[in-house]
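input
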Amino acid sequence: MGWLLLCAFMFLLSVCTSLDNLVPGESISTDQTLISSSGTFALGFFSPGNSKKFFLGIWYNTIPKTPKVWVANREFPLDSPGVLTLSKDGNLVVLDGMTKKLVIWSSNASVPASAMNATTAVLMDSGNLQLKLGEDILWQSFDHPSDTLLPSVKLSLSKITGQQARLTSWAALDDPQPGMFSLGIDPKVQRQLITWKANATYWRSAVYFDKESKTFFRNQSGGFFYVAYSFDANEIYFTFGVSDSSVKLRAVLSPTGQFHLLLWTERSKTWFEAWGEPINKCDYYARCGPYGACDKNGDPLSSQCKCLKGFRTEFQKQWATGEWPGSCVREKALTCDKGEGFSKFEKMKLPDHAIILGSMSMSECGYECLRNCSCTAYAYSNVTEGGTVKCLTWLGDLTDLVENHGLGQNMYIRVHRSDQGGKGHVHKLSLVITLVSATAGLLTILFVYLLWKKTLRNEGRGSAGGSMSEAISNVSLGGGKNDNELPLFSLRSIVASTNNFSEANKLGEGGFGPVYKGILTENEEVAIKRLSRKSGQGHQEFMNELKLIAKLQHTNLVRLLGCCIEEEEMILIYEFMPNRSLDKFLFDSSKNTTLDWGTRFRIIEGVAQGVLYIHKYSRLKIIHRDLKASNVLLDGTMNPKISDFGMAKIFSMDQTEANTNRVVGTYGYMSPEYALYGHFSEKLDVFSFGVLLLEIVSGKRNSAFHRLEQPLSLAGWAWELWKEGRGIEVIDESVRETCCLDEALKYIHVGILCVQEAPANRPTMSSVVFMLNNEATSLPPIKEPAFSTPRKSSHVGSSFSQNSTSFSNNAVTISMPEAR
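output
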């Protein structure tokens, strides 16, 4: 009898519990569980609170009433307990509890066909559920967190694919279905964590400078745990760990958007909150608006907001009533002259939308910001570990500033000299700039002298753009205190650097002439653009580019390093772009996989910032007139730089439009009012940007686009899919599965907005940048774009260049109206 009772007890025990693994042919359901080998974690089906829905989850086995640390079928709850088993293809699956045939959830791992009956599932002591083939891990729950992080679980962002591992809150405390909050690494800046409420930023961490950053905390037993940020060649990730594996620690994104780090205290049998964000008023994103700083040590009963030195509240009367007006404005507007410098602010949470310039000295960091008229602040790190970012800059308004932040840094904000603090640093920087300007002034005198001599030699001989003396008077180098002057290089040094313009050094050739790779002093690689002697054109374009680029300084514009005018040669020297032009990658099926979604995002953002700069923030208001994929160059880290200003036109700051009888540019990128009537404005570049944006998202070339024997444009094709609710089909298949879908669809919307028929219906570049960077922005409705259906038209004056299937190789092509 006793033996029978023992057998019955063992049978019941085997029904109610299981070992830590599941093998083919086994399953768990109802009250059965997997228990990790140490007994720390359990896996099974549960029904939360008073809910009648069932989920598969993992929880602490020895701690009562602990919320689940991982849930499988969050999006597909069951009406009755399901079945967890290994399917015929070797994957872990949850089947419905009624028919036991319908697959509710699957691990979706790639299991070799020869091993589909050889996989096992194991619940590890760490709380990680793994699908294994021998010792190889095919899938693990740690790579797919729900609302909870356990030690060693990563919030990650792949640098290669752009794929993210994020937390998503529960809908409510008793409802594991996905809620409205998510937490992950910012895909734009990549050096900060963000909590999103729907698609709007809700909270943002400090900006992490270092390759690896750890914040340590002590626990009551004398051990410690840490919160860590790190990155390597493949991914960026955030995680935490403990010195003692027996310590129970978890981080949870709550249904109300708070991110808590919780420590189990055995003595009190409670979870203790060791850290949490957002808690303080200042933790909430952009609480004080642009240039408004939230003081974390301020009175919590007040708004805690104030304007930085050199700024004031926009509405003084409203502020007098105790209500924060929401933004600050400058006391004195910036004019981008020598009367500007930086104020130093300590212990500041660095603002959002940082731009990484990389490793350089502190003075170089400040100088790079000061020479860019749209740069409003910079920050610098002294850490020298390999791979560490040293210089960050910001363009435009500074958002989400917090004073007295626990992870604050020193930052330097651009102000008028009368508002500057930290004058020692400013004066030192100004001295460097003064010395540079003096040297450049001497070069200018020499340059003008050489031009004068060349004019005498060529007296009486005109060029396509007029006489050389006329060109000299138009260049105006050295004519004002704000002009940037170019170094002159001797023809001998150019010949030596290109191995006498050898074919081996040739990068490509455009309408202007050939381009060569050269190596100048200190082994600096450069791109050398040489005006073709055979060309009946180019002198006007040469002087135009010389005049324009010498005055432009922006991280997303190609940098002109110098020039050479000697012995009938006219040569421009540019910074070298190792990855050459965007079209080389975008329209080559063997290379477009290099352009993951994160890279495409950076290129779109960079080009938009560059066009905004020439339209609004540069010393000259410029219309590029030939913005296209072959004129976007890529540096060694695939950051974009706009090139080729030979066709650009200068506007006065109050001028909005103009007409020309010489229409230049490239088919497919020209707006209808320009192509048909020679009428152009900023909206011409907006149109070109819209076409380029759609090309980057879709991976398709606009000028070669055909559909059903009709010469429909890329924008027209995108518009038809958009109308039918099939916008996702516009996205390049190579990134469709890994991109942020909402973001990609928003970009398509913005792209179609930019190519509207009427210029008035297109946004300005300021609006474009705002729409691209603000997730919560509601976008204007769109109509059928221009050139979406075939039409007959006449042109003004000239024919146009067509996009060919060849690739541009550097900052060297100019699209001309004449046939090549």
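quick obs: The chain has five domains: 1-143, 145-279, 283-421, 428-575, 582-773.
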